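Course assignment 3, question 2. Fill in each field.
Student: A.L.
Task: Predict the tertiary structure for the chain below.
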Amino acid sequence: MSIRTFIRTVAAKVCVASVCLLTLASCDGWLYQDEGDCSVHYRLKFRYDKNLKWADAFANEVSSVHLYAFNRSGVLVWQMDERVDPSTAANYSMELDLPAGDYKLLAWCGLRNDGERNESFSVPEAIVGETRMEQLQCALNRKRDDLGAYSEDRLYRLFHGTLDVSLPADDDGGSYEYVMPLTKNTNHIRIILQHLSGEDVNKDDFILRIDDENGLMAHDNELMTDENINYRPWDVQNVEAGIGPYDNRAITNVKALAADFTVGRMLETHREKMILTITTKEGRLVARIPVTDYALLGKEYYEKEYNYPMDKREFLDRLDECVMTFFLDENHRWVSAVIQILSWHVVLNDFELE
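Answer field:
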């Protein structure tokens, strides 16, 4: 063998060996089989701490997630829905099966629940490559009778969230985690009627309703133009309540009326106020109360308590439960009220009603 042939043979073998080493060292090479591949994983977690306890309650409150991903043009490119297992909800996250790129994520949470009764809210069917983000409105599933649209159910909790993400390309593989904050769109309101005189209040003597046009939410969670929704209590019962001065042990227990409602999102800028109407069964008006205005009476307290200033919208988004107790005189006329939000309450006397 000539020296020139020998050099060529050695050079060829070196090149082959180099290619083999590069192959073995790559993410898919057998040297890395025990270490796993080098694919990229993107995961999305959810956080619901937009409440008056400033604590993440996702694990305790969210039952399902419907997630949609849109490209820069606003067209749907991927979607996924999952039930949230309560036993693992504290560590729940959803894998984003998407290539690297920029996306707008939209979530409606609480659309799919235990299946024991009809779902409370729905969104249109989404088609990849066709559906646009603004088409994914969320509507209250309402009923109808001679008085129009109404809801008398204990609504499932509904949440909304959006997030812009940039998913990076990574030739070496890796895991990336993102967090989407959620806003709760349902509220529990308990109305209590009680006589100052100590007389029992019979639940069959009064009719209570809450009216608002808040049954349709846009993709950005703004309220859209909608028909009036007549919310009716999903539970009305007589409860025991105490009457008498706090410094007097001789407090009399009497029957009061307690009515529980679940209503949709409350917004201070909504063109139609959420109104509670209480009438006797004969039709005489007892009270007509702007619910949102009353609820906002608690804002200043929480701002001072937590040293956290917030606008009206944020407070209403954080509020999800409110108890309103109305005291009546012997003629079933409203004379005073107590508004309770968590541990805070305010007493209203001779307050001007609408």
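Instructor remarks: Residues 10-26, 28-34, 350-354 have pLDDT under 50 and may be disordered. The helical segments are 3-25, 58-61, 291-295, 299-306, 312-318.
Grade: pending
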